[in-house]
Amino acid sequence: MHDRRLRRWLCIGLVVMLLIAVIMSSGCSGYKRFTLREGDAHFSFHYPKDYKNALTDIGSGYTWVTFERLLPDEVQAVSWFTVTVDKAGTGRGEYTDAKDALEYDISIRSKLDNYQLLERSPVSVAGVAGEQLIWSHFSFSPYIKGESPKETKPMFSRHVYFDHGGLIWGISMTSIEKMAEETEQYFEHLLETFRILD
Questions:
Q1: What string of DSSP letters covers 151-171?
Q2: CA angle 41, 44, 45 (to 5 degrees)
Q3: Could you give the domains of the chain?
Q4: CA 62/CA 175 separation, integer angstroms
């Protein structure tokens, strides 16, 4: 009698563990993991599996990683995200810190007729405080084969900046307007899963 109860509880425990494993794996089934352990910045994150790594550059004095998404009949990406890491004072813009990089971003884009700042808000990435900018803008690029290059496309961009380990981190995501809601979820997932590695 005692052995039968023990076996029943072991079976129930095994079924529960299997269910938990299935639920956890299905929650991330639409994502892959990217890890970079070269150069000055080591990090990892989850990204949507239908995005492809278009660029990983660690040899230009800074780190730059870009993923993009193409759909059938497209000649350019309709959505992409980028992770950049600069050394303070020596990177692409010679920024002193993330706030300096963010203010430079605002000063440049605000001068352009086709950019509008929608939101500026605090954000946390890997337990580090930063700031997020959300822009609406237009692109003149043709995304679908046969479209005129003069036709503009409404787009949205999200840019996050933060400082960590003497480095200035930037994470951004841009997409055409019709994908804005979908890419917002992707970007939130990317930020939630972003890890700075030792």
A1: --EEEEEEEEEEEETTEEEEE
A2: 135
A3: 31-196 (3.40.1000.10)
A4: 24
**pTM higher than 0.85:** no
Q: How many CB atoms lie within 10 A of CB 192?
A: 12
pLDDT per residue, tens digit, the chain (198 aa), is 566 766 666 556 555 454 444 444 434 579 999 999 988 899 999 999 999 999 999 877 789 999 998 776 666 678 899 999 988 876 666 789 999 999 999 999 989 878 999 999 999 999 999 999 999 988 755 555 666 655 667 889 999 999 999 899 999 999 988 888 999 999 999 999 999 998
Counting Cα atoms < 13 Å in the Cβ hemisphere of 101 gives 30
- Cα separation of 113 and 136, whole Å? 11
Task: Decide if 44 contacts 25 (C-beta within 8 A).
Answer: no
